[in-house]
Design goal:
Length: 297
């Protein structure tokens, strides 16, 4: 059965943050949908076999936003599983957010055309009056003082959306080229024994069996591998709870060829059963992906 979520509320209260969170959890999302198309969109989604859709409707939507409460009641009377979330914030917070974003309020042009004062405070007041009836009927989240992460978490809990697994990337790199800017967690493997000094292993990489056999004989290598694995297992659920979609673990050694590559390959195999895992080696041409996970997205 189709589950629909309608995000509405005061401009600047976090509707874009909420909608992106729903999109990340598998919802088909539409932003700024005119109220007159709400029935048509829901019907089309049902015919197309979609299971979860989310729509953002607010004062930016063309047409009469005053019709929204009536449209919501009509959909519910037809048996649509529609959950409405009204986002709000105090005026001080809204003004501060507009000051930081430097954007115009969506009602500015409308008030101008009506010959009314279109200051930011007047636009906010007009929007509160316009959406007042809907606010009184639906679930309200006051986003004043909330971080984007908190808002995503609250909305996800409210709609009972199952979070998609984090895309976990393991990446090897060479310290002589610098630490990757996109790394979330960085581990230094330069203290481990270096196969580079074995002339037979020097031209190989950490993906070759001979290098792997050489490294796994060292208790230090095994200890570091166990420590890194334990750290990730301990903290990965908390990163997921923070509504992260991606987590990149970078492991570096001097040349990015032997030790870091070996550790990355071993970690990828360890965590592959937990979900989507990608492997990248910066010091080598191309990207390597864990075969059991299929092609990368």
């Amino acid at each position: 059965m189709l589950r629909a979520v309608l995000i509405t509320g005061i401009s600047g209260s976090g509707k874009s943050v909420a909608l992106r969170m729903l999109e990340d959890t598998g919802y088909t999302c539409v932003d700024n949908l005119p109220v007159r198309f709400l029935h048509e969109f829901v019907a089309t989604a049902h015919q197309d076999g979609l299971s979860r859709v989310a729509i953002a409707v607010d004062a930016r939507s063309p047409g009469d936003i005053a019709d929204l409460p009536r449209a919501v009641a009509s959909l519910k009377s037809l048996g649509v599983q529609l959950r409405v979330i009204f986002l709000d914030a105090n005026t001080t917070t809204i003004v501060q957010r507009y000051s930081e974003s430097r954007r115009r309020h969506p009602l500015t042009a409308r008030l101008d055309s009506e010959g009314r004062d279109a200051s930011l405070h007047d636009c906010i007041l007009a929007e509160r009056e316009l959406l007042g009836p809907l606010r009184e009927q639906e679930h309200v989240i006051d986003t004043s003082g909330l971080t984007p992460g908190q808002l995503r978490h609250w909305v996800r809990d409210l709609v009972q959306a199952e979070p998609l697994p984090i895309v976990l990337t393991f990446e090897s790199f060479a310290y002589k080229h610098g630490v990757p800017l996109g790394a979330d967690l960085v581990f230094d493997a330069r203290c481990l024994p270096n196969p580079f000094y074995d002339l037979a292993l020097r031209p190989l990489t950490g993906r070759d069996a001979a290098v792997g056999e050489w490294l796994c004989r060292s208790p230090l290598v095994s200890a570091m591998l166990e420590d890194i694995s334990g750290f990730i297992r301990r903290w990965l659920p908390h990163y997921a709870q923070d509504t992260r979609a991606y987590l990149t673990v970078a492991i570096g050694c001097t040349g990015g060829q032997h030790r870091s590559v070996y550790l990355v390959e071993q970690l990828a195999q360890t965590f592959a059963p937990r979900g989507q895992v990608l492997v990248r080696h910066r010091a080598q041409k191309g990207e390597a992906f864990v075969p059991s996970l299929g092609a990368p997205p």
